[in-house]
Every structure is written in structure tokens, then in C-alpha cells.
Amino acid sequence: KNEVEQSPQNLTAQEGEFITINCSYSVGISALHWLQQHPGGGIVSLFMLSSGKKKHGRLIATINIQEKHSSLHITASHPRDSAVYICAVLMDSNYQLIWGAGTKLIIKP
Amino acid sequence: NAGVTQTPKFQVLKTGQSMTLQCAQDMNHEYMSWYRQDPGMGLRLIHYSVGAGITDQGEVPNGYNVSRSTTEDFPLRLLSAAPSQTSVYFCASSYSLGETYGYTFGSGTRLTVV
Fold first, then answer.
1. Strands of chain A, DSSP E
2. Interface of A with B in 42-101 (CB under 8 A)
3. What is the pLDDT of residues B30-86, one digit of tens each?
4. Residue A43 and residue B105: Cβ atoms within 8 Å?
5. What 8-state DSSP symbol labels residue A64?
6. Averaged pLDDT for residues A95-103
7. Is B95 part of the contact surface with chain A (CB cutoff 8 Å)?
8. pLDDT over threshold 80, residue B5
């Protein structure tokens, strides 16, 4: 049983579409982390949040602690948003990250 | 400000060889960790350190050693490489300040063991 589940595993959309990627977890956490990994392999931290909502440019991340669920939204998607988006939770017991398997997003022009 | 520097970027080893993956950070972060990423799986924690002189095992520590003699450096040693250790390795450094956390990742090392 995975402690962090992401959905969908793969997502293909047209440029301009509104994108939602979901993350559910089953452990107690201090914070939830959204990261982006491009085909070249580098990992970039997008958001770290423990409550509510954060926004950076066209990216919005929300978290519902009671429901143990977070979403990452991309507005006005663009081909350069194509990447793997990874959800990871920071466990409150030992402050280690537990990682989801990632969502592969392809935005077609 | 270099962030987290990982070397080498690519490496091919023969079974049984040993090598060290280097990781250095210049942000004075307390926490450093090593992960491996295999196709179709999330990153898995190998070893981590909460400060100089302190290390601990993660989820998949077998076949790997680490040390943390300084805040800046956290090398990962493969003692006797095996094909099962073919993977992409990421080093990360992080901090926590109250309810604020920050993570920075190295660019990764693609290791192939033949």
C-alpha cells in the first residue's frame, strides 16, 4: 500500500487547458511538497505547504489536511509545462519525505 | 550561489567496483539526504544526515555508506557495485525553520552498473 498516491499517472492536454493533478496521503505530515522534474532529470521544488493555498505565477497548490488531499493546478497550460510532477509528504514523525510516483504531463501545442 | 553540486553526472561501473558520489551544498543547510530514482517508482531515501557527524539509514540503505564530516559535504559510497544499483541518484539539502521548510536538489547522477 502506497502512503502517497498521485492521479492521474499520465495526462495529455492541449495548450491553454486548465490542469489538475491530485495527491492523497495516508500518514501524518508536517508539510506537503510539489516538485517538477523535466526530461533532463533535474528536480525543482515548486511549493511546500502545510495548509490552505499557495500561488506562483500560473501554478496553484491547495491542501486539505482533514481530507489528506492536495491538488496542483496549472492555468493556461503551455508546452513548456510538460514534465513529471511529483508530490512528496514530509512526515511529522521523522521529517523524512515520502514520495509519490509522479504524474507525467504532456501539453500539446 | 551554487546550491547543491553533485558529481559526477554520469558513471558506468563494472560489478564489484567501488566509487563515491560527491554532494556539496553552500547554503549551510542542516539536513542532507541521498535518494535513488528508478523507472516507475518514486524517489527512495538511501541515507540522510541531520547535521555534521550524524547520519542515519533511510528506506534502501544496503550497499551504500555515507559520512558527514562537514556541514557542506555528504558523499555516498558504493562499496561493491551491483547491477541492482543502476539508477539515478539525487542528493538534496534542506532546512526547517518553524513551519517553513526548503529543499534544494542536485542535478542527479546517472549510474549504470554492468
1. 4-7, 10-14, 19-25, 29-37, 43-49, 52-56, 59-64, 69-74, 83-91, 97-99, 103-108
2. 42-45, 48, 50, 86, 88, 90, 95-101
3. 899 999 999 877 789 999 998 999 999 998 999 999 999 999 999 999 999 999 999
4. yes
5. E
6. 86
7. no
8. yes
